[in-house]
Design brief:
With 65 residues, the chain is of the alpha+beta class. It is 26% helix and 37% strand. It has 2 helices and 3 strands, in the order E-E-H-H-E. A 3-stranded antiparallel β-sheet has the order 2-1-3. The longest helix has 13 residues. It is globular and about 35 Å long. The two termini are 13 Å apart. 9% of the residues are buried.
Length: 65
């Protein structure tokens, strides 16, 4: 399953960084079984910054990134 992640609000402590605010993730390929519980941690692990808030929805078109 792919999900479209939007509205990513990063906790950067005021540091100027270039982080994505939206993306499409293939949850199976990334090992995310429960996006409600695992998505913020996955984003934090991948980009090195904590996430304040995030929204997501299923995507029906495979291969979008």
């Amino acid at each position: 399953m792919s999900i479209k992640v939007t509205g990513i609000d990063w906790d950067t402590d005021g540091e100027e960084v270039d982080l994505p605010t939206e993306m499409v993730i293939d949850t199976a390929a990334e090992g995310i079984e429960d996006p409600d519980q695992e998505l913020a941690d996955w984003l934090s692990d991948k980009y090195g910054f904590c996430v304040k808030s995030v929204a997501f929805e299923p995507v029906s078109e495979p291969g979008l990134r």
